[in-house]
């Protein structure tokens, strides 16, 4: 599997491809658990948002939770046949990408994801936004 992390959109598609291939290593490589943990801690426990230990422990818990969820519930399958992306800049290195999938049945599925620009100018998914 080729991992393209050159754009936020490519990172999302690569992550979905890794899920479709049931490649746990690639899935973990394409997710920025630390950034996801930072966002979560800032939202749920703002007073602890500068505590690196809390963020690191949360990142580890998110990683383990994902692994356990895949074991217990199976692997998701993604169909990317007819998609449109919309990107919103949150900061210099953080984006919200809205993925709009129009299924063959006409049903529309919309997902919003955080995507983080890495130090090497590639991108990793940093969590699904639940509203």
Describe the structure.
This protein has a single domain (8-128), classed as Nuclear Transport Factor 2, Chain: A (Roll). The mean pLDDT is 93. It has helices at residues 8-20, 24-29, 33-44, 52-73; strands at residues 83-91, 94-102, 108-117, 123-128. The termini are far apart. A four-stranded antiparallel beta sheet has the order 1-2-3-4. By secondary structure, the protein is α+β, with helices and mostly antiparallel strands.
Structure summarized in a few sentences:
The protein has 131 residues and is α+β, with helices and mostly antiparallel strands.
Helical stretch count?
4
Structural shape = globular
Parts with pLDDT < 50 across at least 5 consecutive residues: none
- Overall number of strands: 4
Give the ordered list of helices and strands: HHHHEEEE
Mean pLDDT: 93
CATH topology: Nuclear Transport Factor 2, Chain: A
Radius of gyration: 15 Å
What percent of residues adopt helix (DSSP H or I)? 40-55%
Distance from N terminus to C terminus (CA atoms, Å) equals: 32 Å
| Total of domains | 1
Q: Structural class, from helix and strand content?
A: alpha+beta
* Main sheet record: 4 strands, antiparallel
Beta content: 25-35%
Q: For the largest sheet, list the strands in their spatial order.
A: 1-2-3-4
Q: What is the CATH class? A: Alpha Beta
What is the CATH architecture descriptor? Answer: Roll
């Amino acid at each position: 599997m080729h991992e393209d992390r050159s754009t936020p959109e490519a990172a999302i598609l690569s992550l979905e491809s890794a899920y479709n291939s049931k490649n746990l290593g690639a899935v973990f490589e394409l997710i920025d658990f630390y950034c996801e943990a930072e966002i979560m801690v800032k939202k749920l426990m703002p007073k602890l948002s500068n505590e690196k230990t809390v963020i690191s422990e949360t990142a580890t818990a998110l990683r383990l939770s994902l692994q356990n969820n895949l074991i217990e519930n199976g692997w998701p399958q993604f169909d990317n046949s007819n998609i449109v992306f919309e990107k919103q800049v949150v900061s210099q290195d953080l984006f919200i990408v809205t993925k709009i999938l129009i299924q063959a049945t006409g049903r529309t599925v919309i997902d919003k994801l955080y995507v983080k620009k890495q130090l090497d100018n590639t991108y990793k998914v940093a969590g699904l936004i639940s509203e």
